[in-house]
Write a structure and sequence with these properties.
Two copies of one chain form a homodimer. Chain A is mainly α and about 210 residues long. In chain A, about 70% of the residues lie in helices and about 0% in strands. In chain A, strands 1-2 form a two-stranded antiparallel ribbon. The structure holds a DNA duplex (30 and 30 nucleotides).
Chain lengths: ~210, ~210
DNA sequence: GGAATGAATATTTTTTGAAAAATTCATTTT
DNA sequence: AAAATGAATTTTTCAAAAAATATTCATTCC
């Protein structure tokens, strides 16, 4: 039912391939000119098709913006997943890494490309965009929950509702995931102030009382 | 040096009394019409003075907006202070209460009066307003730190940097203090979802390992 | 002389119509 | 018949003028 592009780099049938082409071209244009300054005509030119034809693949410009943001989310998730693949480290280190990597990735993207702030604002103003955002948040909650389960199994953490702990970790670090809030967060040598301290205090709370 | 109004309900000399009159009238007008739609002429009319005379008491309209917000901050702090006055409860209960009361107060104010969102946005866009906000944040950090010190003394908490723990608690609950973020936070029977769970997990982290 | 006024000036917001862009759709292409 | 086009239509943006508002200040009041 859902017509969203698959994540694989090499899509199969024509329509999916064209959707991906549109997103990749749009991503480049949005980075250069910003979402609002990029016109449908620009995207059409970049993909060598007519403006009208874009509407065969996306409902409207907002839909393209959302798809681009979703692609960023998938990339960020892939990056966090990669961090989790690395061998060493117990659940605590992995949770720390997961959140630090995710926030770090976001901060670097934003610093590297201020145009993304506009896209982030747009996604928050759009109800459908908020759904995409929520899905990304849930991905993070689940990823943390998995590590909590692992920690409970090894005895590093005391028994608890892992699903809920994932939600708690994300909620407690929410200000660090919000582009609009990120502006107000101080940094020291590249690390956002207090983020790791929040995580450490909550991890301490997870450990068995004895 | 600082010419800000005292908190007492009955101010002493003329100038302070007039400043307070202006703020009280402005607060009502802002609630009815919003900050941007309220004109200096409106405020002048409400206080039975000429527009020009307002400038004898406040540098400009922004200054009035900031003073109104600061008044809200002082009221919120007073409310939290009152909560702390109540006899029962150890440090953990008091920290929970402090944060819940503060966030609850903010949420009720916002629900009761959506115009405040505009004022909050304005304060965040103004560098001087951000200073007021920072002071309010520091008040909360210090209030929590005091309870942490008490907890360390009673042995309920393990020894730690109380000052820093105050900062951590505020940082971890920041999304619940931000009017712009508050819109996105779900509520269940009047309580913001997960707020108390964040606090509880961090409190668990403060307790002696045994 | 400090406090207050209100007309004069500076700034910001609103309006308005033209220009640009988004979206649709009758037609053409493959 | 699905895919694509590009001209036609609708919607949004932009810039200039007008109106409203903020701020100043020479003057008046107590």
């Amino acid at each position: 039912m859902n017509a969203t592009a698959k994540q694989s780099a090499e899509p199969q049938d024509g329509a999916e391939r064209i959707r991906l082409e549109i997103i990749e071209a749009s991503m480049v244009l949005f980075q250069h000119y910003g979402f609002s300054k990029t016109t449908m005509a620009d995207i059409a030119r970049a993909t060598s098709m007519s403006p009208g034809n874009l509407y065969r693949y996306y409902k409207n410009k907002q839909d393209i913006g959302r798809a681009v943001v979703e692609r960023y989310f998938r990339m960020s998730e892939a990056q966090m997943e990669t961090g989790l693949m690395l061998p060493g480290g117990g659940p605590a280190e992995r949770i720390r890494g997961l959140i630090s990597d995710g926030v770090g990735h976001l901060m670097r993207e934003m610093a590297h490309n201020p145009r993304l702030v506009e896209l982030a604002d747009f996604i928050c103003s759009d109800p459908e965009g908020m759904i995409s955002l929520q899905q990304h948040v849930e991905w993070k909650e689940k990823a943390i929950a998995k590590e909590v389960v692992r920690g409970i199994q090894t005895g590093e953490f005391k028994p608890c509702d892992a699903e809920q702990v994932g939600q708690i970790f994300v909620a407690a670090t929410r200000a660090y995931w919000m582009p609009m809030a990120l502006i107000h967060i101080r940094q020291e040598d590249g690390k956002p102030v207090l983020l790791e301290d929040i995580i450490d205090l909550m991890l301490a709370g997870l450990r068995p009382s004895k």
